[in-house]
Specification:
CATH superfamily: HUPs
Largest sheet: 2 strands, parallel
CATH architecture: 3-Layer(aba) Sandwich
Distance between the termini: 12 Å
Length: about 80
């Protein structure tokens, strides 16, 4: 993401890289409530079955509670920009 931001392919101030500490879902949701966020982009591991029920889905929870659209990219998937 840092490389993409430096490449000039994004307009200045249109994309922000944010690093937060704490409980993941709560921090993301609280950040979007306090800032003007147009879109959340995050990856998903795509866990299924027992792994999903044991770990839960952070992406699913963020998608459910976010007050803006969420773009979910599959981990190790093919992406086009």
């Amino acid at each position: 993401l840092k490389k993409f931001l430096k490449s000039g392919n994004s307009a200045e101030n249109d994309i922000n890289l944010v690093v937060l500490e704490g409980e993941v879902v709560a921090e993301i949701i609280n950040y979007t409530k306090n800032k003007e966020v147009d879109l959340i982009v995050m990856s998903s591991h795509g866990y299924k079955g027992l792994a999903y029920s044991m770990k839960g889905s952070i992406t699913e929870k963020v998608t459910r509670y976010a007050n803006c659209p969420v773009l979910c990219l599959k981990n190790n998937g093919q992406h086009f920009i």
